[in-house]
Amino acid sequence: MSVPFLDVDAIIADPETTIVICCGSGGVGKTTTSAALAVRAAEAGRRVVVLTIDPARRLAQSLGLGELDNTPRPVEGVDTTRGGSLDAMMLDMKRTFDDVVEAHSTPDKAAAILANPFYQALSTSFSGTQEYMAMEKLGQLHEEALTGVEGHPRWDLIVVDTTPARSALYFLDAPDHLSSLLDGRFLRLLLAPTRGPLRLMSVGFNLVSSAMNKVLGSQVITDVQTFVRACEAIFGGFRARAGVTFELLSSRHTTFLVVATAQKDALREASYFVDRLTEEGMPLSGVVVNRVHSSPLTVSAERALSLAEDLAASASLEGEALRRHANLKRVIETETVLLDRFASVRPDVAQARIQSLPTDVTDLVSLRRVGSLLAGEA
Fold first, then answer.
1. What is the residue extent of each domain of the chain?
2. What is the DSSP letter of 164?
3. Taking CA 339 as the corner, what is the angle to CA 335 and CA 343, rounded to the nearest 5 degrees?
4. Distance between CA atoms of 248 and 229, rounded to whole angstroms?
5. In terms of DSSP bridges, do strands 47-52 and 157-161 run parallel, antiparallel, or are they unpaired?
6. What is the pTM assigned to this prediction?
7. Residues with Cβ < 8 Å from 110, sequence gap 6 or more?
8. Which of 112, 157, 169, 280 has a Cα-to-Cα distance from 213 of 20 to 30 A?
């Protein structure tokens, strides 16, 4: 079935495109795709920073870096003759949260917040914190890209490698979640249980508070109250900045790539990502399908097995090769059915299909090869 071709080089060449976000389930080559796209863009003349939100170390390994952290660092070995450059970094959720606290608080208040036990738990393991911090870091990078150094923009393209799960799109809900958190009745009770229209609820609140103290301990409640009062303004800033970043993500300056493989589960997850992005009105360029199998031989699986049986007695090596070919052809047939089914439901979604490589992608040379395949080059 014929599907629209995903023209990655056109995306790279468009100066209006300043953010590319790669999302998809785990194990589909999303990090490799992000790194290959970043290398290709840098060598085409773009000033690129690639940010991974995935805590795995594959991005650093594939770019030849020992490790990545919250600070962008240059990637050596990239061809810069066209004026491009490439930096790479990995989101440090705790460090990003700390930076926000320090940037939007007085030194004394920041020190108190950073030492608060509830804050320490929130900034490392609280559900949703990673998505909020991803929004913060992306906003910071975009602002830094615009302001640059001495009036010269530092980057003109940000490539984001998201977490390998459906939660990769939770940042789309970050503004609403923050608003729900800040406007929630429980936090308002914690902040002012006996003031204003809530004063009539003070007796009930005291009963609930007493019960919570018995279960959680009075110090936990005190830590939460202290943290909420100290961070009220900071959380309001989160909400405002998350809204600005959300608008940026839905603008023509951003595009999304959904990454998958030609497997049933991976394509099911890709369908979820495509549908969710479409519902949110996000600019989706298309789907990258990695590790698609192919064969230059036209011999069918059935014919190969028949020949293998004829050769079994006299040529075992040739017979084994034919049996392997038969298995490969069956894999190709299964993948073709799955990809055609996916395309039939979403005929307008462009695709780039990357053939399976015989070795892992672990360096710039292999990333360039993936980039060439991504662009449709033989």
1. 8-175+244-298+349-374
2. S
3. 170
4. 30
5. parallel
6. 0.82
7. 101, 102
8. 112
